[in-house]
Structures are given as C-alpha cells and as structure tokens.
Amino acid sequence: MRKAVCPGSFDPVTNGHLDVFIRASEIFDQVVVGVLINKTKSSMFTVDERIDMLRQVVAPYPNIVVDAFHGLLVDYCRDNGIPAIVKGLRAVSDFDYELQMAQMNHRLARVETLFVSTNPLYSYLSSSLVKEVATYGGDVTGLVPDLVLARLHERLHDQQNGS
Ligand code: PNS
Fold first, then answer.
1. What is the C-alpha to C-alpha distance for residues 54 and 151, in angstroms, rounded to an integer?
2. pTM of the model
3. Ligand 1: which of 72, 77, 112, 125 to mutate, judged by most atoms within 8 Å of the beta carbon?
4. Does ligand 1 come within 6 angstroms of the Cβ of 36?
5. CATH topology of domain 3-160
6. Which ranges carry the Cytidyltransferase-like domain (predicted)?
7. Which atom of ligand 1 is closest in space to residue 73's alpha carbon?
8. How high is the pLDDT of residue 39?
9. Domain residue ranges in the chain
10. Is the CB–ligand 1 distance for residue 72 below 6 Å?
C-alpha cells in the first residue's frame, strides 16, 4: 500500500489543507493527516479537538485517516511505513523553509517530500490568518469547513465571555 503523510498543526484545519489532503488521496492508497503534538506552541484548539474536527472533515474520504505524532516526522514515517510527505505550496514565500525541511527529512531518513501547488482560491490562506480575522469579527465563511467555522465561533464566544 502506498502511503503518504500530510503533517501540520491544523489549528484549525482550513479548506486549503483539505484541498491538499484530497488531492494527495487521489495519488496515494492511504493518506495520513499527521497532527503535530507541540506542547510549547500555544494553540486555539487542543490536539484532541483538532483531531476530532479533522476526522469529521475527512469522513467522506475513506483513504484519508487522522493521527497525532510528536518528535521527528521522519521517525513517525519510519514507524508507520510511510515513504512520502505531501505538502501544499502556497507561494514562493513558502518555498525556502519547505525546501529546507524536505532536504533535511531526506537526509535523515530518505523520506521524500512531494509538493502540491495550492488551489489559487486558497493561496493566501493560513490557520493563523483565519484565527486573526475571525477574532476581530471578520467573516471566514468558505475558508474553513462549516463545522470548523461553528467551533471557531464557539471558541471565540467562550474566550470573549471569559469561560
Ligand atoms: O502546520 P505547521 O505548524 O506549519 O507544520 C509544521 C510541521 C508539523 C510540518 C513541521 O514543523 C514538522 O514536521 N515538525 C515535526 C518535527 C520535525 O520533524 N522537525 C524537523 C523538520 S526537518
């Protein structure tokens, strides 16, 4: 079975991420969406909440599964028989760091990285921007899946009411 991983923080998952998962799932037999457990980075959603949203979002795609990992991505790849990483490239600005990581991951474990050119509809999109815009009352409808939009509004409402 040809497997690939789409790694990230997904805080929260956007329609840009989803587009990359789906396109990877058309090439590979199984795509694992790998959520990085990073205790040092502050996040809006817990890892469990992010995984729960991701699982609901990818439910219609039987060959996309969701898992969490910590430590090096290449160790997760080795432990799970995954030879390839698939990432979305939004713009030239993504390229330098992505190339660095791809080269390091290849150097460490010969894991290959394949880049999908992001759908132009979502090329300006990031989880951080979505959170910032939503925090200040901007409309992010259509940029994240509907269930994520609802959770985002819920979380912001709770934060603004101190609960
Ligand atoms: O969504 P993000 O936070 O931009 O994703 C970054 C991620 C998770 C893909 C990257 O930080 C990563 O692979 N982290 C795991 C630790 C690791 O392997 N670091 C060395 C990379 S060469």
1. 12
2. 0.97
3. 72
4. yes
5. Rossmann fold (3.40.50)
6. 5-132
7. 18
8. 85
9. 3-160
10. yes
How many beta carbons lie within 10 A of that of residue 26, not counting itself? 9
Give pLDDT tens digits for 15-61.
999 999 999 999 999 999 999 999 888 999 999 999 999 999 999 99
Which parts of 91-162 fold into alpha helices (H)? Answer: 92-109, 127-135, 146-160
Q: Whose CA is nearest to atom 11 of ligand 1?
A: 8
What is the spatial distance between Cα 163 and Cα 156, in angstroms, rounded to a whole number?
10
Cβ contact 34:67 at 8 Å: yes
Burial readout 83-116 (b: 16 or more C-beta within 10 A, e: otherwise): ebbbbbbbeeebeeebeeebeebeeeeebebebb
Q: How many residues does the chain have?
A: 163
The phi, psi pair for 137, rounded to 5°, reads 90, 5
Per-position DSSP letters for 9-62, written without gaps between them: --TT--HHHHHHHHHHHTTSSEEEEEEE--TTS--SS-HHHHHHHHHHHHTT-T
Q: Is the preceding omega at residue 120 within 30 degrees of 0, hence cis?
A: no
